[in-house]
Predict the 3D structure of the following.
Amino acid sequence: MGNDTPKAVGIVWGLLILNTLGSAGAKTIVPLPRSLIQMVTMGSLVAAFALALALNLRVRIRPSAFLLLLTLLLVPSVISSANLESGFGALFRCGRLALFVGTLWLLSRWWDGGTTFVRHHIRMYFAVLVSVAAGAAISPGAALPELYGGRLVGALWPLTPPQIGQYAAVIIGLTVLLLLGGRTDRASAAFVVVPSVVLLAMTHTRTATLGLLIGLALAIGSLVLTSAAARRFFLWTVVSATVIAVGFTSALQTWFLRGQTQENFSNLTGRAKVWDALLAAPRSTGEQLFGAGLGDKSFDGLPIDNSWLAVYQEQGLIGVILVGAMIAVLAGVALLRPPSLARACAIFLISYCAIASYTEAGLGDASPYLLHLTVAASLLAAPAPAEVTQLPTPAAPRRHVPSWARRSEVS
């Protein structure tokens, strides 16, 4: 991205990330009223929109099929929420999504295929992980509660293990790719990656771990033919993974099962039962097409934990088609682009979100997953044409010279 990108854009991005942290999670060291947390998160979104508008007063935006589809997603959201079947909170969530999408449109002015938004993404989520580590250092009991099976949670801000695992996995993958692309040095990469790997392991989050491994494999694979560093890293990773898999099979299996029985693991920790009940529930034609309105991504009081079924529940089949089109458009553009670091980072983010969508909700509402995809869209944007800052100087008119004056004088 060009050097003319205002530094305040990073502040806007940080406010959007704060908005998507949510208000539900483990008990914190200092009890925080949920109303206070919601006030902070919603206030951060309003501040992000106001600051983005101040930075882009002329409302210059980049054309984006991804943002267009995301904007169209507001249509089934508003239609289904207007019935108030999910209460007035559904209309509030529609307003939040509209403000969120509007802020992304305002930021699209600074998309040009560079890595500025990637760096903002890494910095902001690393700051969140620093708060998690600080909470674990201050009160290990609160950070590793029995309620979550001893998995790491946010003790200063209410964050669940899947949230922490997601943030850690995403910045690990992006930092590794920046290192391979020569955009950062080893010391800086290690400063981010090493503690993030430790926190990811402490969360015991299988989805984030698989998303990281598969996403990195696809991203690095897209660089293998053009980058010697990517080839070396890929080779060493394969060798190391083979050694670890052979030497620590039982330990890996124990970590992966998290003390669950095979039956509990096979039905995805109870998720499959919720999914079956959701699909079997009777629906009108309107509910099938437009959903029941934006809610808290739950069904009968239980979390849905699947982006596609959550979108089907709240925004209907039209919402599912639009979300699928968003993923397909980004993936199609990424595949058509020549190999590059920006393309590799986009492939990692798109594949991670696609994998996580099976056991995590968020693709149909303001969430970290939409921010991940937005970063991917910024990486795939074509560089903006340079603005003309100086008009061309018109050629000086030729002065007419009479024919008698053009004859040379004979002395």
About this structure: The longest strand covers residues 298-299. The chain has a mean pLDDT of 87.
